[in-house]
Amino acid sequence: MPSAKAYAAHQAKEPLKPLDLQRREPGPHDVLIDILFCGVCHSDLHQVKNEWGFGAYPMVPGHEIVGKVEAVGSAAKKFKKGDIAAIGVLVDTCRTCESCKEGLEQYCEGTIVWTYGGVEKETGKPTYGGYSTRIVADENYVLRVSPKLKLHEAAPLLCAGITTYSPLRHWGAGPDKRVAILGLGGLGHMGVKLAAAMGAEVTVLSSSPKKKDDAFRLGAKRFADMSNPKSFTDYAGYFHLIIDAVSADHDFTKYMDLLKRDGTLVLVGLPPKSPAILPFALTAKRRAIAGSQVGSIKETQEMLDFCAQHGLGSDVEVIPMQKINEAFDRMARNDVRYRFVIDMASLKA
Ligand SMILES: [Zn+2]
Ligand SMILES: [Zn+2]
Q1: The domain that contains 189 carries what CATH number?
Q2: How far is ligand 2, taken at its centre, from the CA of residue 254, in Å?
Q3: Which domain holds residue 62?
Q4: Domain termination residue (choose one: 273, 291, 309)
Q5: Does residue 180 sit in the same domain as residue 152?
Q6: How far is the CA of 45 from the centre of ligand 1 (A)?
Q7: CATH number of the CATH domain containing 338
């Protein structure tokens, strides 16, 4: 069995420490990937702290994985040794439900095998994520990465990128559409880049005026400082679409009022409290509030190809694996522009 070096939370809320693990022997449709980079997603921190209540330990986080194919199974067709490959938040689904058959496996009605914290179908053992040197996965759930992409900047596309790309596409972001990105963090900064590349007029809604220059550099046409109450009147009824990437509690009604008739606010952040919305904020202009979860394998591939075509990547700070606990602390304070990415060479030395 292929062995791997990893970093794991051995218990909830504990700092990550080294862990040696065995990956499964690659089956006919599997690929063995030598991991080069792994992005650090905010949900990794939530999971390590067991904030959603379903953490299993030891936990090896990481679901923004880019690497090089080291070996392929006898029946694998999509990849060959040496190819650049990527893995996002899921590594398998039921493959038989309506959503899976429609190619929307991120909404699988059966069991989604998450990249970490899931249960591997092949072995019945827990899945371990990308904070490790190697991983084995079914090639149907593995993405191709264009050599045009810078690999360290590509890693966060696998979660932050697709989580914003999918709702932008689904709700028709493009020319003549006024799109707001609420919250300029890991998700939001990708939302700005992607919506701008799709041709939409992008406004960043943020309570941190110091992020204004970044917003313009990333592709926004406008910046609205939401710590100033005047912004809520200036932009009332203005947007076709708001991508809400804020993970802290906020007043949804006030933001719904920024939508035009038939506009939609899409939740991609996960605030702890349920949204409370005054019904008039919806009925008066036939507005909708919706949610969206990552994207399908097909759409993730489309997004990676779109990013290669438009020269898009994430703004990253590359760290060695040994600095992960410090990175978690900084991420909790929003002290990152805009994504940490682990260079896995640091675990192989
Ligand atoms: Zn994520
Ligand atoms: Zn399914």
Answers
A1: 3.40.50.720
A2: 36
A3: 3-159+295-348
A4: 291
A5: no
A6: 10
A7: 3.90.180.10
Residue 48's Cβ-count burial label (10 Å; 0-12, 13-18, 19+) is buried
| Cα 162 to averaged position of ligand 2 atoms, centre (Å) | 19
Its sign, for the CA torsion 135, 138, 140, 146, is positive
Distance 43 CA to ligand 1 centre (A): 5
pLDDT in tens, 16-67: 999 999 999 999 999 999 999 999 999 999 999 998 888 899 999 999 999 9
Q: How far apart are CA 23 and CA 294, in angstroms?
A: 25
In this structure, are residues 195 and 239 in contact, taking their beta carbons and an 8 Å threshold? no
Residue ranges of alpha helices (H) inside 128-278 are 151-154, 160-170, 186-197, 212-218, 230-234, 252-256
How far is 42 from 36, CA to CA, in rounded Å? 20
What distance, in Å, lies between the first and last C-alpha atoms of the chain? Answer: 21
User: How far is the C-alpha of 21 from the C-alpha of 1, rounded, in Å?
Assistant: 10
Residue 166 confidence (pLDDT): 98
CA of 187 to the centre of ligand 1 (A): 9
AA letter at 75? A
The closest alpha carbon to 85, from 286, 348, 301, belongs to 301
Centre of ligand 2 from the C-alpha of residue 154, in Å? 27
Ligand 2 centre to CA of 292 (Å) is 17
Taking a 5 Å cut-off on Cβ, the residues next to ion ligand 1 are 41, 43, 159
Answer positive or negative: Cα dihedral of 32, 35, 38, 43.
positive
Q: What is the identity of the amino acid at 335?
A: D
Confidence bin at 210 (pLDDT 50/70/90):
very high
Q: Which is nearest to 115 in space by CA: 163, 165, 158?
A: 158
State residue 245 phi and psi, 5-degree precision: -105, 20
One domain, residues 199 and 130: no
Indicate if the alpha-carbon torsion angle 295, 298, 301, 302 is positive or negative.
negative
Whole-model pTM? 0.96
Is 227 found in the same domain as 337?
no
